[in-house]
Design goal:
Blueprint lengths: L2 E5 L5 H10 L3 E5 L3 H8 L12 H10 L3 E4 L10 E4 L5 E2 L4 E2 L2 H13 L4 E5 L7 H14 L7 E5 L9 H7 L2 E5 L2 H11 L7 E4 L1 H32 L3 H8 L22 H8 L8 H27 L7 E5 L15 H10 L3 E5 L5 E2 L2 E4 L2 H5 L4 E4 L4 H4 L3 H7 L4 E4 L6 H6 L3 E4 L3
Parallel strand pairs: 1-2, 1-4, 2-3, 4-7, 7-8, 9-10, 11-12, 11-15, 12-14, 15-16, 16-17
Antiparallel strand pairs: 5-6, 8-9, 13-14
Helix pairs in contact: 1-3, 4-5, 8-10, 8-11, 11-12
The protein binds ligand SAJ.
Ligand SAJ binds next to helix 8.
């Protein structure tokens, strides 16, 4: 078991390929994007955001030749194990999985995989996908029988932006194996790079574990948002409520905010829902998604409410949108709540300026890096992401820069009372 292939070189595939190469395997990274392959060949990281240690590790394994990359999937024919780490997004409108990339990877691998190969899928899957889609497709294309001519496991990734390497090394992992032999091979591989626990189970259980762990978080956040809306209606500070609730043992009330973005939390609840066979009985999952998807629109309602208190029209007023990234102190725009916020502000006829220290551009909007420029003469400053830069803002200085003193706070960046004492009209989620 010396030669590995990793199909799909993104947030999951790149650190995985580097870790196995660093553990002494000959790793072949495969991706359809030639540009990405060329970048990696130059030992450059084709990922946004800051990933401690990953660039240095990539340079090391590319230099030693332990990691080679190619766009030619046929080169996986000699691999002893093939890891599939392609994206499994949603078809947003229908809330069903979009398995285009997964099917393409499986059809390619199926054509070339050798007898005795171990196939491991790390992509997040709706329950039943391994048994009902992946294994049958691999058997059909390769004309090989799982458990006899090849082995299969689903080991869902547990990566987090900003902690890619750390998580691969330290996170506990679930290995959903087709049979005992598949489990043994997968365990022996992961033991070489994972210090966390390796828990073996069946494929469907592993699919459910991964989608449930993120659905759990989505529901937790949705309840925090609902508590936030209750507190707003009663003029109570939800963050104070949260602090006091969490002093009670076994409570972990999450944080109300402008919405839920990212590449996994908004998606995985729908994968779990899709894979179940009793959808009509499932109420909490869709309701939680509806609440979290509503929050960006609620934030814009707060803008409208503040402007009407000021007796100012939103149309042709200038708004500074602070934060494009879905996550504070990160530069990742995937499913960011800022996107619906900007669309709604546009519908109100507002002149929009966007600031984000970590993202350079967004569509045909100019994204400012300099806070000074983005708030100058603005009629409203709306905080959608809690980047650390915003917490340091001097409210006196800000008041002299803007034209109309309106602050809309989607992430509890400021205290309502402090802002109002300084003469701002303040609206905040959960306050
Ligand atoms: N958010 C809230 N309130 C909260 C927590 C998060 O509104 O209390 C929002 C964030 O602003 C963001 C979104 O939810 O827009 C997602 O935030 P996240 O902290 O869950 O960050 P992610 O999307 O990177 O989630 C990843 C997930 N990791 C994996 O899928 C392996 C998630 O399971 C982890 O729990 C999470 O990182 C983490 O704990 O950092």
């Amino acid at each position: 078991m010396e030669r590995l292939a990793v199909v799909g070189l993104g947030y999951v595939g790149i650190p995985l390929a580097c870790k196995f190469a660093d553990a002494g395997f000959d790793v072949l990274g495969i991706d359809i994007a030639l540009g990405k392959v060329k970048k990696i060949r130059r030992a450059e990281l084709p990922l946004t955001g800051n990933e401690p240690g990953l660039r240095e590790l990539l340079q090391k394994v590319v230099r030693t030749g332990k990691l080679k990359v190619t766009t030619q999937i046929s080169k996986c024919k000699d691999s002893d194990a093939i890891f599939i780490c392609v994206e499994t997004p949603l078809q947003l409108k229908q809330k069903v999985p979009n398995y285009t990339a997964l099917r393409a990877a499986l059809e390619d691998v199926g054509k070339y995989m050798r007898y005795g190969v171990m196939i491991i899928v790390e992509s997040t899957l709706a329950p039943r996908t391994s048994n009902e889609i992946i294994i049958p497709l691999l058997e059909k294309i390769s004309r090989k029988k799982v458990g006899k001519d090849f082995y299969f496991a689903h080991c869902p990734e547990r990566v987090m932006s900003g902690k890619l390497l750390e998580n691969i090394e330290n996170c506990n992992r679930v290995i959903g194996a087709y049979d005992k032999k598949s489990a043994k091979i997968a365990l022996n591989l992961y033991k070489k790079i994972v210090k966390g626990n390796l828990d073996v189970t069946d494929c469907t259980t592993a699919e459910i574990v991964k989608t449930v762990e993120n659905t759990y978080r989505d529901i937790q956040i949705a309840f925090a948002n609902e508590v936030g809306l209750i507190c707003e209606s009663l003029g109570v500070n939800a963050y104070k409520v949260r602090e006091l609730v969490n002093k009670c043992p076994y409570r972990d009330l999450h944080i109300p905010g402008a919405g839920v973005g990212g590449h996994c939390i908004p998606k995985d609840p729908w994968l779990l829902y899709y894979g179940s066979k009793n959808k009509k009985n499932l109420k909490i999952i869709p309701s939680a998604r509806a609440i979290n998807d509503f929050m960006p629109y609620h934030l814009v309602n707060l803008v409208k409410n503040a402007f009407s208190e000021r007796g100012l029209a939103t149309k042709n007023s200038t708004v500074a949108v602070m934060g494009l990234s879905y996550l504070e102190n990160a530069g990742d725009i995937r499913n960011s709540p800022a996107i619906p916020v900007i669309n709604e502000l546009h519908k109100l006829g507002m002149k929009i300026r966007i600031h984000d220290p970590y993202i350079k551009n967004y569509g045909n909007y100019k994204v400012f890096e300099n806070i000074n420029k983005v708030v100058e003469n603005a009629d409203c400053v709306i905080f959608v992401t809690a980047h650390r830069e915003y917490k340091k803002l001097n409210l006196e200085w800000l008041k002299n820069k803007i034209r109309t003193p309106i602050i809309i706070d989607g992430r509890n960046v400021f205290e309502k009372e402090v802002c109002e004492k300084k003469g701002y009209i303040y609206r905040g989620i959960g306050k």
